[in-house]
Amino acid sequence: MIANNIIIRELHTQPYMQTYQAMHDFTLDRNEQTPDEIWLVEHYPVFTQGRVGKPEHLLHQTDIPIVATDRGGQITYHAPGQQIMYILFDLKRRKIGIRDIVSCLEKCVIQTLAHYDIMSYAKAEAPGVYIDHKKICSLGLHIKRGCTLHGLALNIDMDLAPFNDINPCGYAGLQMTQLKEFVPQINRSELKQLLTNNFINLLTN
User: Fold this and answer.
1) What's the start-to-end Cα distance of the chain, in Å?
2) What does the domain layout of the chain look like in residue ranges?
């Protein structure tokens, strides 16, 4: 699908490292004319550690694999039932700064949740989106050759228990929440449409 010259790809459920490698390959191969892309994906259970991640934020050893990445931030958890939106955007070409793109990511989630009458907010000192002091969306980016990799992870309908084995995003005692605690029946197609539309509108208006 193409919207505003942005290609949107639905990748369904993929192993984390396969998508990670594909993001880097795409970024290395792209040029000044390559359209920006949004990838919608879910991952099989995996802990991912940011490039400055501290090992002490893994509280318990489990059978879930731990992968080192080059995104910002500390450790987090991905699994089916979490909607991930990776953004592969040329910031140089769009003349957008990193803080602006982070703000667009946070606002697109806040607007999406508002559609379901859920009040959420961002924190300047701790990127992501929160509801009543609980985190519902994590985000982390990496900039390579002026282009973004990675993106956001919005908890929809997943097993949150593995978050207890880590300090989520490096914050001890941080509780996680998810959309199904507020909206029992979630139309996933509608949610993905809202998320991508809100992001594109924020970015292009």
Assistant:
1) 20
2) 2-204
pTM: 0.95
Q: Which residues are annotated as a binding site?
A: 71-78, 138-140, 151-153
- Architecture per CATH, 2-204: 2-Layer Sandwich (3.30)
CA distance 148 to 129: 20
Which of 104, 108, 137, 169 is the catalytic position? 169
Predicted confidence (pLDDT) per residue in 117-140, tens digit: 999 999 988 899 999 999 999 999
In which region does residue 151 sit, left (phi positive, over 0), alpha (psi from -120 to 50) or beta (all else)?
Answer: left
Does the annotation count 169 as an active-site position? yes
Query: What's the mean pLDDT in 15-35?
Result: 96
Distance CA 64, CA 44 (A): 10
Annotated binding-site residue numbers for substrate: 71-78, 138-140, 151-153
Contact assessment for residue 56 and residue 28, using Cβ atoms and an 8 Å cutoff:
no
Burial of 82 (0-12, 13-18, 19+ CB in 10 A): buried
Q: In what order do the strands lie in the sheet with 129-131?
A: 2-3, 6-14, 37-43, 82-88, 147-155, 134-144, 129-131, 121-122
Beta strands at 75-78 and 134-144: parallel, antiparallel or unpaired: unpaired
Task: Categorise residue 170: left if φ over 0, alpha if ψ from -120 to 50, beta otherwise.
Answer: left
Alpha-carbon span 200 to 142, nearest angstrom: 19
